[in-house]
Predict the 3D structure of the following.
Amino acid sequence: MADKPHTTRDPDGLSLGDRAAHAVLEYRQGRPAALEAVVREMTPLLWHTVRAQGVEPQAADDVVQDTWVALVRHVDTIAEPHAVLKWLLVTAKRGAWEAVRRRRRDERHRTELHDGPDPETGAHRELPTPDPAPDVVVVEDDRDRTLWTVFQDLPDRCRELLRLVSLADRPDYKHISEAIGMPVGSIGATRGRCLAKLRTLLEQSGADDIWRHA
C-alpha cells in the first residue's frame, strides 16, 4: 500500500504559539513548509515589536531577518518548541535594543568628528549626553522593579496579553488573538480588566503613584 502524502497544514483552531511549535517540529523532520508559513505570518508582529523599541524601518527589517536566522541556527537545540513564540519576541527585542545602541553610538561619533576641537582653546567641546541623570536612573530603576514585581502577581493570561499589547504603539489584535488564542472582540475588554487588576495590586502595595505617573 502506498504511503499517504504528508501535509504540513496545521490543525484548525491552533494558536500562533502552537503553530510555531508545530513548524519547528516539522522543520526538524526536513519539512520546511510549515515554518515558511509561520515566518510569513509572524514577521509583521516581530517588525512592529522591533519598531516599538525605536528602530528605524530599514534597520527593523534587518533585525527581524536576523531573528529568523537565529531561530534556524538554533532550531535543533530548542528543548521546548512551545516556547518558540516567546523566544522570537525576546530575541527580536534584544536585537532592537542592540540596533538602537549602535545607532546612538554612531551618532555620537559623527557629532564628535563634526564638532572637532574648540578653535580658541584647542580642547574638544564637551557634548551634552543623551543619557538621563544618575538620580533619574535610580528612581526609574526602582519604579520598574516595583512594577515588574507587582506585574508577576497578575494571572498568567493577563501577563501574556499585556506583554503582547505593549509591544507596539498600535498593537495588531489579529496577531495577538492568534498568539494567545483569544477572540479579537474580547481583547479590548480583557485588557481593561487586566489593567484594573494591575492598578488594584499597585494600590495594595502602596505603589499607586506609579500608576498616576504612567
Q: What stands out?
A: The domain at 14-118 is CATH 1.10.1740 (Rna Polymerase Sigma Factor; Chain: A). The longest helix spans residues 84-115. Residues 69 and 75 are 10 Å apart (CA to CA). The chain has two domains: 14-118, 132-214.
